[in-house]
Structures are given as C-alpha cells and as structure tokens.
C-alpha cells in the first residue's frame, strides 16, 4: 500500500512540473483521454462489460459544454458540469436499455445506440454538422482565472482529471465496488444473495458515462472545438485500444494506455510515418492481444510479483 | 394444515419447446425438515430448483413460500424474502478473500451497497459477524486466504457460511456433495446437519448414503414427475425407485451388496476423519 502511495505522489509531482517541459495543450489532451479511458475501464475492467459506444458520452459532454460556452455565458466549470450531467443522463437511459445484455450483445447494443447519437449530431443544426462546433471560448474559471492561458488551462484539466481518477478509485474500493466485484466473479451467486445485479451494472454504466462526458466536456474546452470525431465509432474503438494496451482492470492501465496511444498519434501524424498511424496502431493492438494480454501495467505488475512479491 | 409447509408448489410445470422437464409437481416442504429431492439424471431436479428460485420461469403452476405466492417474484427478491439457493458448481467469489465472500452476503442489509463514494472500510464493522460465521463452518483459520486457493470441500463450506449469513428460512442446496472425496462428503454432511437446526433445507443429492443420514423426507422425481414420497425406509423399499435408478429390478441383489460395501467404507473413512 505504501509503495502504491509513493508511486501516486511521484506521478502527481511529475504531472505538476510537466507543463514546464512539454506543450501544455498536448498534456491536457493526454489527461482528457486518460480520464476517458479510466471511465471506460470502470465498465470493462470492473463490471466486465465491453461498451462499444462510449464515444456517444464523450461527444455529448463535448457538444453540450461547447454549446453552453458559446450561447449561455455560463462560466466554464458550470458548462463542464452540465455537459457531464447530460452525458450521465444519456448514460442512464442507454444503461437501462443495455445492461440486461451480456458479452457481444451488450457491445452491439451500445454500438447501435451510439450510432444513433452520431447521426443525430450529424444532422442537428447546433453541432455544426461536418464542420463541428468551432471557436468555443475557454472563458474565465469561476469568472476569475483566464483559461485562455495554456498553463492555467492545464492545471484546471489536471484538477478535473484528479477528481475523476479519485472518484473511480473510490468507486472500485467502495461497498458498491465490492458488489461489482462479486457480480463480475459470479453473477448467478450475487443474484442468489439477493442483489439485483442489473441495478448495480446500471449505476456503474451511468457513472462511467458521466465521467466519459466529463472528459469530453473538458476536451472541448482545451481544443475550443467539438467535432464529429468524438462521437464516431472510431473513438469508441480507440478507447478500447487504450485500455487494452495499458491493462484492463488495473487502475493505472488506462492512463498509461492513453499516454502511449495519444503520444504516438501526435508524433507519428506530424512526421513521415503519418500515413501509417493506423497500421502501426493495428499492429500494436494485435501484438497486445496475442502476447501481452494484461497490457503494459498488467504485465509490469506480474513481473513485479514474480521478482519482488 | 398448510401453515406447516414452508414451501409448496401447486401443479408446477415447465416445458421447453414441447419437452416437459417438470411435469405437474406438487411439492410440500415441512418446516424444520431436511427434505431431499432425488432421482436419476435428467429427472428435472435442478430444473425444479431453478423454478423455485425463478432462475427459470414456470410454464404454469404456483409456488408458495410461507403461504405467500412468490411465483411472479424476481430471483433477487426471492432471495431477499428468505429462500436462498446454492449451485451445483460451488458458488463462491474466487478472487475475493474468504472473509469478503461472507461479508458480501452480510453487506446487503446494511443498505450501503450503492454507496460508491464511501470507502469500503465501512464494511469492516461486519468482519466480526463474518468471522463468527466462518468459525461455525470450521473456516476461521482461512479468513484471509484467497477463496480460489481453498479445497473443493472448503469452498462448499464457505458457500454454506455465505448462505447462512442471509439467515434464510429455507436453504436450497443443489448437490452439496457432488464431486467430493469421501472425507469432504462426511464433513459437508455433518455441516448440513448442524446448520439445519432451526431451518428448513431442501436439497438435491445423488449420494444416497448422505440422503439416508440427513433427510427427514424424500421426494423421488422421474422424468419431471414425482414418482413417490416418504422417509428413507419407505422410498428405498419402493421397487419403482430401484427400477428408476437401476433400469431393472433384477440387479437388486448386487445392488444391496454394493450399498453395504460402500457403507462400511464410509464408516472407516469418517472415523479417520474424526481422528484428524
């Protein structure tokens, strides 16, 4: 336990000094995707359900926050809060419809529902369709701190990420998390102990959707842009990849996975290998599935256990 | 009269696409009894269990628990009402600790099972009670072990402790001794006897030796229907039961000899068990 705490402290220090060495907007993007992947992992890693529609929540959070920033004059923290609530509400509805299914059927239902959302945003006038919602202002945090400054923006994103990460950590290690674990381990037994397992999955799904929305809302503010990319099913696939690469069911795995994927996309797309990004990512995906099932963090944990445990 | 029955089924029928798995079963389980459900493979014993706990929905018929119609209730609600089942394959949470397994059952009544914002340390107040339950099934020493590392017999004991945590009126045990060595069979049988005090137990069991030792009343199922009912002496004397099990009555002599041999063997084993 102590060792873990030390690791967290070291990572936090790293995150605090990082913007003085790396481009803050890139770091903020990384944190947004890390939060998105953590939210997704709450479903895949801790409930055992693979959602193939989490982009819907990322995008909904983004569009709602973007629209509010452009049209309502709300301060950014309120716009983000409402974007999160909107994604959570959508998650609550979609969760009700999907948690009764399992395995591939759950993935298909979530995919279908998220495609529905995609086409709504494609057609709806307020999203800007193919062009996206451009020129979203970042505004002043609490009406005071100017977020147009990238360093300010970064620390705001870091605070949001830490809150989201803490909430997920807490959820996993809560009375609710214990029941989730029991359901994942042996669902019929959990039922026979009197738990309405679908209610628990539904709460987890709603929570996961809200946190994905939080990531999307924040991301819109960082890039001052909300676009169809965030609701496209590619995005739902990308978050699966991030989580798998980092390590499903480990708390830090999605963070590491998001870091690896986002960094790769960023550096490769700018360089000569730009056209091969998807091929390289596909290769990594295959490699992970074939050889490193537990992902980077999972494999590292195993190695640690073997050598020092 | 019917107040004596904890559980009653009336004309219970389950059909799967033209095949009748459970055919007009009228079962009465008397309060305080250990009631055994026996029958050859495919007789519909587990299907009856699944119907009673609503893991399957009956095609027609009624299920009464303490004179209350529970036919329309959901599985989790039936468990909360006091009918708790076990499964053929040991139903534990393998990657939780032994103590946590029992705690999950205790946790539900605490009303904090949806509290995702609280630390799980609030569950520590249940540890004493969970430990007591583990002690009662002889697992006190294993409280901190990972459940997956327990022997099969101990997993079954843990399952019983977890079930007891819910303080059920009626325990449904689906083949509690299946796949066990002689030693474990003896241990689990003794345990069932012990926990049956003040409760009603309905069990599916293949091991007739265990049935003869434990059951107050036996219902024999064949092809989904009740063949006969009664205490062990009555049921075992019924030639139809022997036929259902053995195919013909001709092998009766051989059969008796086998039973005697098995019994003798069992006794030596349980003596050894006592010494350990």
From TrEMBL, chain A:
Location relative to the cell: Cell inner membrane
Keyword Transferase annotated: no
A Pfam family reported for this protein in Swiss-Prot or TrEMBL: BPD_transp_2
UniProt keywords, alphabetically: Cell membrane, Membrane, Transmembrane, Transmembrane helix
GO molecular function terms attached to this record: branched-chain amino acid transmembrane transporter activity
Source species, domain of life: Bacteria
Keyword match Zinc: no
Protein name: Amino acid/amide ABC transporter membrane protein 2 (HAAT family)
Lineage, highest ranks first: Bacteria, Pseudomonadati, Pseudomonadota, Gammaproteobacteria, Oceanospirillales
Membrane association type: Multi-pass membrane protein
Gene Ontology cellular-component annotations: plasma membrane
InterPro entries: ABC_transp_permease (IPR001851), LivM-like (IPR043428)
Annotated signal peptide: none
Chief location bin: membrane
Listed transmembrane segments: 6-26, 33-58, 78-97, 104-124, 151-168, 239-264, 276-296
TrEMBL record, chain B:
GO cellular component: a single term: plasma membrane
Annotated protein name in UniProt: Amino acid/amide ABC transporter ATP-binding protein 1 (HAAT family)
UniProtKB keywords: ATP-binding, Nucleotide-binding, Transport
PROSITE patterns: ABC_TRANSPORTER_2
GO terms for MF: ATP binding; ATP hydrolysis activity
PANTHER family named among the record's database cross-references: ABC TRANSPORTER ATP-BINDING PROTEIN, CONSERVED COMPONENT OF ABC TRANSPORTER FOR NATURAL AMINO ACIDS-RELATED
Start and end residues of each stretch annotated as Disordered: 248-276
Organism this protein belongs to: Marinobacterium halophilum
Keyword Repressor among UniProt keywords: no
InterPro entries for this protein: AAA+_ATPase, ABC_AA/LPS_Transport, ABC_transporter-like_ATP-bd, BCA_ABC_TP_C, P-loop_NTPase
The organism's place on the tree of life at top rank: Bacteria
TM spans (from-to): none
Keyword flag ATP-binding: yes
Stretches assigned to the ABC transporter domain: 7-248
Ranges of biased composition (kind: Basic and acidic residues): 263-276
